[in-house]
Amino acid sequence: MNIEIKKQIGNIISGVLIAYAITCIVFIGYAILLTYTNITENNISLIVTVTSIISVVVAGFDSAKEAEGKGWLWGMIAGLVYAIILVCIMTWVQREFMIDSRAITLLILSIAGGGLGGVIGINFKR
């Protein structure tokens, strides 16, 4: 395997781990707010969507910032990996594998957000 591709795989893994760290911090923070304040659960879907988009943009950025080219591709791959892991976690929690409109929306937003982050990341070093 080409050394550049191995490096990019490491960058993707790093980006996805950072994205999940962001996701966990926001989700835990929101759970604490739900527990100890009068905030209702009505905004959970919005919080999950916004947090996921921000996280995949960061993952795409981190995946592409050291790439030689095709930052959009590396970012999209990072977004796809993030979404696949999240769908697997949702399947494990719900104990049922189901590709519904939420999962497809998550997949599309993750790929697009990762691609956007990749474009920003590849151009950040210039």
Order of helices and strands: HHHH
Q: What's the gyration radius in Å?
A: 16 Å
Helix content: over 70%
General form: globular
Question: Structural class of the secondary elements?
Answer: mainly alpha
Please indicate the percent range of residues in DSSP E strands (runs of 2 or more): under 5%
Low-confidence stretches: none
Give me the number of helical elements.
4
Mean pLDDT: 90
Alpha carbon gap, first and last residue: 28 Å
The main pleated sheet reads as: none
Number of beta-strand segments: 0
Q: Can you give a write-up of this model?
A:
The protein is mainly alpha-helical and 126 residues long. The protein is 82% helix and 0% strand. The protein is built from 4 helices and no strands. It has helices at 3-36, 44-64, 71-94, 101-124. Helix 1 (3-36) runs antiparallel to helix 2, helix 1 (3-36) packs across helix 3 (71-94) and helix 2 packs parallel to helix 4. The longest helix is centred in the first third of the chain and has 34 residues, at 3-36. It is globular, with a radius of gyration of 16 Å. It starts with a helix and ends with a helix. The model has no long low-confidence stretch (mean pLDDT 90).
SSE diagram, text form:
Blueprint: H1 3-36, H2 44-64, H3 71-94, H4 101-124
Question: What are the main properties of this structure?
Answer:
126 residues, 82% helix, globular, mainly alpha, single chain, 0% strand
In summary, what is this structure?
By secondary structure, this protein is mainly alpha-helical. It contains 4 helices and no strands.
